[in-house]
Amino acid sequence: MSGLVKYAMVASEPFLVAYGLDLFNNALIIDIGAGTLDLCRMHGTIPAEEDQRTLVKAGNYIDSRFHMLLQEKVQDSPITLEMARRIKEKYAFVSSNKEVISVDFQVNGKPKTYDVTNELREACESVLADMIQSARDLIVGFDPEFQSVLRQNIVLAGGGSQIRGLAEEVRSNLTEFGTCRVSTVEDPVYAGAVGALNLATDMPESEWRRHATSRS
Ligand SMILES: Nc1ncnc2c1ncn2[C@@H]1O[C@H](COP(=O)(O)OP(=O)(O)OP(=O)(O)O)[C@@H](O)[C@H]1O
Ligand SMILES: [Mg+2]
Question: Looking at the whole model, is its pTM more than 0.70?
Answer without folding.
Answer: yes
